[in-house]
Write a structure and sequence with these properties.
It is built from 11 helices and 8 strands. It is an alpha/beta fold. Among the domains are: 52 residues, no CATH class; 135 residues, Rossmann fold (3-Layer(aba) Sandwich). The strands form 2 sheets. Strands 2-1-3-4 form a 4-stranded parallel β-sheet, sandwiched between helices. It is globular, with a radius of gyration of 22 Å.
Length: 351
């Protein structure tokens, strides 16, 4: 991390402690990752994730005994096996961590071109490492008296953007000299983001001998109850699909919105991706493509759930050709889109 030299405070006495200030931090935040796919690292990660009231809002007296008992006795084994199947063994880390590092490096380069050493760029995770608290502390120590906090979720949801912001605010509570902060809002309809999505679809289709019958846009699901309680996530996902369709110049019949990763007994946003792809195959759509617009980086939900479980559901129902279109990751159009969002939100702090 680039450090700001020690600066004397205006009108400070000669013996005043030296401090760093004058930098602007850009802190990217993603969901998180276990440190390893073995039992105990997986259990620690899942316990932190599933204990978040933004993720599972059941009463603690009811939920925690179930979580710490039955669920965390078994689920780390299944989740660990899934992570092992996609793990970046060479780097010793999850693909999400690898990709987030690459995104950060690319954005850091872009910000340096625009603003020089004035802007410091780093990343954190909501769950696991590197923690939000440690990265906020590091930015303050580096002289950042302003921080732009950027949850890497195109669509706002209480279980993603809000909990990331919650963790930022908890970290700020421990700072003697709190930096000024801004949180980046959802960018689900940002033109450069839609352009990047459309470009990834066009590029993927150009590599196929036969065009898929339909494109499934699979978003991470949330309980339907959250929508009824005012969470805008469902509406924002629907708008992204519509804008993508319009950018591609397609008809309504060529694209469909679905939701994946259902967990627990209650109803979630529908249609469920795993069921819908099977219905499509049974209805005669033998070739489909799937894209995950709500994920800024490929992770367990895309590399394992979509490209293995959901693909299997499609093929078992009679589907013949399944194409997964990767997340935007650190592609140049995506880095340009994210940098555009950052630049817009830095206005008034740096020009």
């Amino acid at each position: 991390m680039t450090e700001c030299p020690y600066n004397p405070l205006p009108n400070a006495e000669p013996d005043h402690p030296k401090v760093r200030f004058g930098k602007v931090g850009v802190l990217l935040a993603n969901l998180g990752t276990p440190d390893d796919y073995t039992y105990w690292p997986m259990r620690r990660y899942l316990s932190e994730f599933l204990s978040d009231k933004r993720v599972v809002d059941y009463s603690a007296w009811l939920w925690q005994p179930l979580l710490q008992g039955v669920i965390l006795s078994k689920r780390p084994f299944a989740s660990g096996a899934a992570y092992k199947s996609i793990w970046n063994h060479e780097a010793g880390e999850s693909p999400l961590l690898t990709i987030t590092k690459d995104q950060t490096a690319a954005i850091k380069e872009q910000m340096h071109k625009q603003f020089g050493d004035r802007v410091v760029v780093d990343f954190c995770m909501r769950y696991g490492n590197p923690s939000t608290k440690s990265k906020v502390r590091g930015m303050v120590e580096a002289g950042c008296d302003r921080i732009l906090f950027f949850p890497l979720y195109p669509h706002y949801a209480g279980a993603t953007s809000a909990t990331a912001n919650d963790q930022l605010f908890r970290a700020l509570m421990e700072e003697k000299w709190q930096p000024s902060v801004r949180t980046v809002p959802a960018y689900y309809d940002q033109p450069s983001y839609i352009d990047a999505l459309a470009g990834s679809v066009t590029d993927a289709y150009a590599k196929l001998e036969t065009k898929p019958d339909i494109l499934v846009t699979s978003y991470h699901g949330v309980p339907k109850r959250y929508l009824m309680e005012g969470d805008p996530y469902h509406c924002q996902c629907q708008k992204t699909t519509r804008l993508l369709k319009e950018k591609l110049g397609w008809e309504d019949t060529q694209i469909k919105t679905t939701f994946q990763s259902k967990f627990g007994p209650e109803e979630w946003l529908q249609p469920y991706t795993v069921e819908e792809v099977a219905r499509l195959a049974e209805a005669g759509h033998k070739r489909i493509a799937v894209i995950a617009p709500a994920f800024s980086a490929d992770c367990i939900e895309t590399l394992e759930e979509i490209n293995e479980e959901i693909k299997e559901s499609f093929e078992e129902a009679g589907g013949e050709e399944f194409t997964y279109i990767p997340c935007l990751n650190d592609s140049p159009p995506h880095i340009a889109a994210l940098s555009d969002v950052i630049t817009q939100n830095l206005k008034g702090w740096v020009e």
